Amino acid sequence: MKKRHQQKLAVLALLLLVALNIPIVLLFDNSDNFLGLPVIYVYVFSVWLFSIIISFIIVQRYYE
Amino acid sequence: MNMKKILIVDDEPNIVMTLEYTFKKSNFEVFIARDGHEALEIIKNSVPDMIILDIMMPNVDGFATLEQIRKDKNLEHTKVMFLSAKNKASDIEKGLALGADAYMTKPFSIKKVVEQVHFLLQIS
Amino acid sequence: MNSFYLLLILLIYLGFLFLIAHWAEKKANSKWTNNAYIYSLSLAVYCTAWTYYGSIGVAANSGLGYLPIYIGPIIIIPAWIIILKKIIRISRANKISSIADFISLRYGNSRFLGAIVTVVCLTGILPYIALQLKAISETFHLVTKTTTSSLIFNDTTTYVAVALALFSSYYGTRYVDASEKRKGIVTAVAIESILKLVFFIIVGVYVTFFVFDGFDDIYKQASLLENFRKKNSIGGLEQGLNWFFLSMLSLFAIFLLPRQFQMAVVENNRERHIKTAIWLFPLYLLLFNIFVYPIAWGGNVLFKGFAANADTYSLLIPQHFGNTFLTILVFLGGFSAAISMIVVSSISLSIMLSNNLLIPYTFLGKLRSEEQFINNKKIVNIRKFGIFLLIISAYFIYRFFALDYSLVSIGLISFVIIAQLAPSFFGAIFWRRGSRLGAIYSILIGFFICIYTLVIPYTIGISNQESVFITDGLFQIKLLKPFQLFGLDYLQPVPHALFWSLLFNSLAYFSISVSFKGNYRERNYAEMYVDIDKYSNKHENAFVWKGTAYTTDIEKVLVRFLGIERTKRALNIFNVKYNVDKDQELADARLVKFAENLLTGHIGTASARILISSVVKEEKVTLPEVLKILEESKENIIINKKLIETSKELQVITAKLQKANEKLVLKDQQKDEFLDTVTHELRTPITAIRAASEILHDDSEIPEDLKKQFLQNIISESDRLNRLIDKILDLEKFETGKQTINPQKNNLINTIENAIEPLNQLLKNKNIKIVLESERTLFAFYEDDRIIQVITNLVSNAIKFCPEIEGIITIQVQQKDNFISTTIIDNGKGIHPNDFEIIFDKFYQASNQNFKKPVGSGLGLAICKQIIEHHKGKIWVNPSPKGASLTFTLPINNTI
User: Fold this and answer.
1) How far apart are the C-alpha atoms of B111 and C695, rounded to whole Å?
2) How many Å lie between the alpha carbon of C405 and the closest alpha carbon of chain A?
3) Engineering a disulfide at C240: which of A22, C430, C708, C871 sits with its beta carbon 3.0 to 4.6 angstroms away?
4) What is the pLDDT of residue C107?
5) How many structural domains is chain C composed of?
6) ipTM exceeding the 0.90 mark
7) Closest CB from C687, C709, C855 relative to B58
8) Which of C696, C717, C735 is the last residue of a domain?
9) Cβ neighbours of residue C355 under 8 Å, at least 6 residues apart?
10) B76-104 b/e with 16+ CB inside 10 Å = b?
11) Which domain holds residue C586?
12) pTM for this one?
């Protein structure tokens, strides 16, 4: 895989580091109901799912 | 008549004119041909003592003409001299190898040509 | 549920696993066992009984604290494409079979460092294994509704432990080369991963949609419970910090845990598989975690008021509703989670134990002198023994240490201990200056702090308020309170320990590494690790070693472990790869490294090095020398690549050059011929001038009319000479592009008529008729004089070639698209088709170039072509049955 595509994944890791930690994660830190789950869960799981999808796309497209 | 016969073969009329004038003054009977073909025709009728042969001529050139001449037994005693602007060593070698008795280059000195002809015919 | 039946089910299940392992071993290379999905799923050994039970306990009792264990991996897994790939490459190149090998090799193949790492891993993992056994035992008793027996022989866990030991030692140590892939184990673990996930999801769905009416229902009911809000949010900044440290902890764990290293690195078959793992493994973790919240709070709602162990909600709920089948499924899921952890961990720990502790420090002497067969048997036995020893030790820890702690807390302590390897590990692959001393001190210091802040307090008893040590610190120094070291009091014990241990750990690592230079051996490996991508295939080239070694000596050592056949084969491969003569007596650095590699799988890197060094004589190499050699070899590799590229380019250029050269030679020849002809042409008029001048000079009696004739000759020949020189210069100007033309709109018919006029006399003399055919007055864009030149030339040629009688020259002018075309036709002897192109060459004369006097100077057509082409027109010969036909075109409008 070319270096620049690898770096896309590295950037994703950095984004996750920021999105899933203080202070950002605290912005979503409450237990109100959202689709039956506390908001904080919805946020974390959404970011989680998002990273899976992005990783999948990048790896499918650029891995020779 | 003791006049020697000389055949001048060259297609440049201005050059031929100078040679013709010179040899007529030297008491030669002068024949003129513009190319090898004409030359051989003239030779059939009368055998010259001397032939001055240019090389670059239309139709049959000088080298081919000499080859024909040297095949002819009648011309055993005829002297042939090349007179040509082709002055490379290879041309001179070829000319002499084909049987020429002399090879002079153009531009030529009239005096020298006359000298050479007299020498070849052993006229003083 | 009767114990006996449950035991039977367990045995059948274990039998099923044995079968899978057996089948997978047979089909070692088929697409069923050697694929990216099996690899990615085997990584799920990360999820143990902790995940299965412990997470629910945490979610139910204290909140989101179970999530950070997965956040760390989620964050770093995308970067695996860079980091894990590098680790795998390094490990493959050096036949590394454990994390202890990985670290110890990097820092100069240090036996001591390998031993320390092994001890750290043992300390961290054995309690963890014990916990899995505890989980099995407790859940077993829960399902069968029996109590834990105090007798060993009545305790099913005993038998389970024994069975696992047998399974692991059989399938885990099949090959004496520890870097061989254990397809059986990997496949079994992957299958278990699928099963445990599926069962968990089933119970999750059951609780959410059958016991309750969906997520909303659970939320409504759960939110009525006390502390619901508090438990379902992170809290404030302090909690946020804890969250952060815990995620960093799990981030390290996913690399450093022996079972993870084993599955992700040692058992990796293809680098390509990483591509799938990057998305599949996080997806697995996500699916696993979705139902933790509903089960936890569903349980809280259902068992409100009862003192139910939240860890076991997943079993309690189906059991509460009498759903035995589901209960057993959950149990089997938890069981799978536990045993895959036990099996993989015990295998990886036993490899470390044998290769980094036992063999290097005790058995090496014996192995050195024995035969291959005996040696291999011994090594395998050591490993098998190791596995048994480990599992039994874990069993005893479980049995005799009153483990009051939840799965989670012991698990976290285990993580923190393992995390002490982090600075040395990551420094190994990214920092060249990381040194052995730095690594050793860093691990020891970190380990010590762990013990102080976690192990000791927990052993004493966290709830033991009477412990002076905990409340007041060592020697009653407040700053040395184990849970509030140096006054840091807003972190929970685990993040707190992690912070301090890693802080001092890293400080030690960095400061010692930059203060003391490592030896050349360390530096050599440092280069090999950090720059692994540059060395790829021929990594033996990166090994710097100076000394005397004999191939036969090395061979002897190899034979002791590989046997004669394999040794011969391996040496053959080496000779072919590096183009070495097989009769070469002296071994070079590459062979030494190659031989060490071969032995590494069997006895570990440290022992391999010790053995090989014992038969070779090494000379000291200074550090600068090593660096220089490595720089050179790196440069060489880069230069090599450039050379190959350049040589390809060179080949292309050379071919082009050759063509150009051939053209030049031809041009040269043509130039020579041209010069020859030109000089000949020029000499002819000069000859006439000279001869006539000589006569006029020497002969004073020459008649007047002859005198005039000769003078006229001189004049006309001078003119002729001049014209010739002009033409040659003209042509030269055209060809070198110095000629300019000034075209304008002109009447072509007029131009043609103007050109023909001076020739009229000549036409009359030769009896040639000339006809001009054109539609009408036609205009074109050209320079008048030049086109007159062209037409004059073409018509002159036509005149020369026309027959003596009835010569006709036809000039046809027509308009064709944007051009006017003019064709000049004569009825002479024509042009041979072969010569259509070449008549436009300079001094062209028909086929027999040297033997016919050219009619004309031979330059005319060449000049015509230049002129026409400069007008953006074309000139060519038309095929015609009789006579010659030439056409030229001129543009109507300005196209220049």
Assistant:
1) 9
2) 27
3) A22
4) 92
5) 4
6) yes
7) C855
8) C735
9) C97, C98, C100, C101, C114, C178, C603, C604, C605, C606, C607
10) eebbbbbbbbbeeeebbebbeebebbbbb
11) 521-621
12) 0.65
